[in-house]
Amino acid sequence: MAAEGGPAENVPFETPDLYGAYPRLTDEQIDRLAAHGDRFPFEPGQVLIREGEPCEQFFVVLNGSVAIVEHYGTPDERILQVHGPGRFLGEIGLLQGQVGFYTAVGHDPGEVLAVPVDRLRALVARDAVLGDLVLRACLGRRALLAGLGAGFRILGSRYSADTRRLREFAARNRLPHRWIDLETDEEAEALLRRFSIGPEDTPIVIWQGHQLLRNPSNAELARLIGLPAPSFDESPSDVLIIGSGPAGLAAAVYAASEGLSTTVVEAIATGGQASTSSRIDNLLGFPSGISGAELAERAVFQVQKFGALISVPAEATALKPRDDHYAVTFADGGTATGRTVILATGARYRRLVVPGIERLEGTSVYYAATLYEAQQCRTDPVAVVGGGNSAGQAVLFLADQVPRAYLLVRGGDLGSHMSRYLIDQIERHPRIEVLLHTEVSEVIGDPVLESLVIVDNRTGERRELDARALFVFTGADPSTDWLTGSLALDEHGFVLTGAEAQADTAPGTWESRDRNCMILETTLPGVFAAGDVRSGSVKRVASAVGEGAMAVHLVHEHLGHKATSGTR
Ligand SMILES: Cc1cc2nc3c(=O)[nH]c(=O)nc-3n(C[C@H](O)[C@H](O)[C@H](O)COP(=O)(O)OP(=O)(O)OC[C@H]3O[C@@H](n4cnc5c(N)ncnc54)[C@H](O)[C@@H]3O)c2cc1C
Predict the structure, then answer these.
(1) Closest atom of ligand 1 relative to the 270 alpha carbon
(2) Beta strands in 372-508 (DSSP E)
């Protein structure tokens, strides 16, 4: 389908629905949608959704067929799917206000039903059956797009920190993209020639097959994709939430659904640590488990449904009292204000200390094991370091994709830090080998990992292990450097709350308020901490969600108390 209006050539009639991502709506469901939209005919080659542009309509194919095309009208044009009657167009980006990652164009002449997206969001929010069907399909399509390597392309060297930054931002925000390594991919040379740029101008982002961004910042890339930009009202939000992991997103759902004006700011990507989990099996209500990515997307949709604002990327760098509220400053110099603040900045992964490991980070050493990382190492043996649940999940997920997966554990008993359900699966898995009392002492290979030198920490015996990728899950440190000096932290850097915080507060702080420091409250009245960032927290998704909800209850109490006592 080289040009607009031409009939499609050599394409199968309709893509089979393998993963439940392309359900067909019933006539009754289409009738219900039709009450909120309009029908109109389309011709072959007529564009309904254009790659790189926001789409305000939800389209249902009534008859004829529509082709989903990547890089439409460029030499790289590729047909991804074809949809016939009863199918709808769009993926999760449509529901979240992101731009299209492909073009939807008429294939056989027909008719569509067009429903404005904001009406669809309202329908999805209140119609459980239709809502879940559309949401599940849109989530599945995002994963399939990622699996197809569709979306924008990042062309850059594996050695370039900026290339790694862009790749991590794209992967953590679950954005469909493909990385083309300047060092090894033949395609790289041809693209440099086509766009008449030199290797020194990389990394570049190639968008819609023809638009170039030269080493864009994460914020610039986010704006291109349509991720919500940090635009903060002059007037303070009732609640300003820092961090959008499970704790922050849960707090946002409760706060916004209870009528508080709510702003969430996030430094990297919505979903936090949990979003890097390939499958969370121990979260109540998900008997067959849920991927961290799906949990994050569903939560973001819920937060937006209640009208809370989410801004990514917005890294908080300072917190200061200002008049009767708080001001938070960001790495880009912007500021947001809140009558109350919920700190939900969680923890960030701990790096493995092995000589020379930095040069392999992002190319063959990873701190997450999601679809994006797994794509890089399908045919080779891999090693996972760590003895906790995150390492257990990662080795199980990877072992289904690679010929061999080693689990390297420093201790002598898997049961000391890992849940039984994971140990049972690991012990039964034919492609997993567990090495206890084992530590990594060397990484061998350049530019990619070729093998590891491991040492038995009882005998000191060293040996080489054939592995092309290394996944590290050796715990996490609190993300609180920016809070040092603003409020009290424990000896490990976690935020003190409740009685411990009260004991560490300047005399008179609480007495003047005629109340005590509340259980999740920090040494700053009206500033709360929830989830992994809090001293003494349990470091689980469910407890982070619980604390997020609880913090909102305490926000109401604080604002209520403030209203009656006139103190901040
Ligand atoms: C791979 C993996 C698998 C896991 N599996 C499970 C499991 O199966 N079951 C389970 O119960 N738990 C699991 N956990 C633990 C669980 O993910 C965490 O306990 C949970 O995510 C904590 O939520 P949180 O919201 O407190 O913090 P986080 O998830 O860490 O989120 C904090 C967010 O704050 C952002 N942030 C940090 N600093 C700033 C700043 N200065 N400005 C703005 N934003 C900032 C971060 O980017 C992040 O998005 C797993 C963790 C990992 C890493």
Answers:
(1) 49
(2) 382-385, 405-408, 432-435, 438-444, 451-456, 462-466, 469-472, 476-478
Q: Which of 218, 275, 345 to mutate to test the pocket of ligand 1 (most atoms within 8 A of CB)?
A: 345
Pair 106, 183 in one domain: no
Residues 132 and 83 occupy one common structural domain? yes
pLDDT of residue 9: 45
- Closest CA to ligand 1's atom 15: 540
Residue 484 lies in a domain: no
Answer yes or no: is 492 within a domain. no
CB atoms within 10 A of CB 94: 26
Question: What residue numbers bound the domain in which 389 lies?
Answer: 357-474
Does residue 519 sit within a domain?
Answer: no
* Residue nearest atom 53 in ligand 1 by C-alpha distance: 273
* Structural domain total, the chain: 4
pLDDT for the residue numbered 369 = 85
The pTM (predicted TM-score) of the whole model is 0.88
Amino acid at 425: Q
Residue 452: CATH number of its domain: 3.50.50.60
Give the residue-averaged pLDDT of 78-97.
91
* Distance from residue 406's CA to the centre of ligand 1 (Å): 25
Cα dihedral sign, 71-73-79-84? positive
Per-residue pLDDT of 302-349, as tens digits, reads 998 899 999 999 999 999 999 899 999 999 889 999 999 999 999 988
* Shared-domain flag, residues 141 and 12: yes
